[in-house]
Amino acid sequence: VQLQASGGGLVQAGASLRLSCAASGRTFSNNAMGWFRQAPGKEREFVATMSWNGGNTVYADSVKGRFTISRDNAKNTVYLQMNNLKPEDTAVYYCAAARGSFRTTVQDTYHYWGLGTQVTVSS
């Protein structure tokens, strides 16, 4: 089972990026999915989550209104659209699959993690 995040890069403040997370080895269509991030010297933090059916989304306050999580269960893929990026968004972004179907912000409830993709936002 593998979650592969992609789409990161180096952008200027105000730009947009779309992260993708493709799952292989099993389907996660019945699982809640989430995005987390870890900035240098900081602990990994919650960014966004979505229930198995694409509803019940939750966002961290720091990204609310700028980031959008979505999923395509037919493609076994989850996305994170990031608009109006800020330097403080710089981090390694991880996607994860939860044990359950309902959206969750708690890291311990996720049991599959991707390797992460680097997002760097310059000022």
Helical segment count:
0
Strand residues, percent: over 45%
Q: What composes the largest sheet?
A: 7 strands, mixed
Measured distance between first and last alpha carbons: 37 Å
Number of extended strands? 11
Radius of gyration, Cα only, in angstroms? 13 Å
* Overall shape: globular
What is the element string, with H for helices and E for strands? EEEEEEEEEEE
**Which structural class do you get from the secondary structure elements?**
mainly beta
Task: Name the poorly predicted regions.
Answer: none
Helix content: under 10%
Average pLDDT, rounded to a whole number, is 96
Q: What's the gist of this structure?
A:
It is built from no helices and eleven strands.
Note the main attributes of this structure.
single chain, 123 residues, mainly beta, 7-stranded mixed beta sheet, 4-stranded antiparallel beta sheet, 0% helix, globular
Structural overview:
This protein is mostly beta strands and 123 residues long. It is 0% helix and 50% strand. It has no helices and eleven strands. It has strands at 2-6, 9-12, 17-24, 33-38, 45-50, 58-59, 67-72, 77-82, 91-98, 110-113, 117-122. Strands 2, 4, 5, 6, 9, 10 and 11 form a seven-stranded mixed sheet that branches. It has a four-stranded antiparallel sheet with strand order 1-3-8-7, with no helix packed on it. Strand 5 (45-50) and strand 6 form a beta hairpin. The N and C termini lie far apart (37 Å). The mean pLDDT is 96.
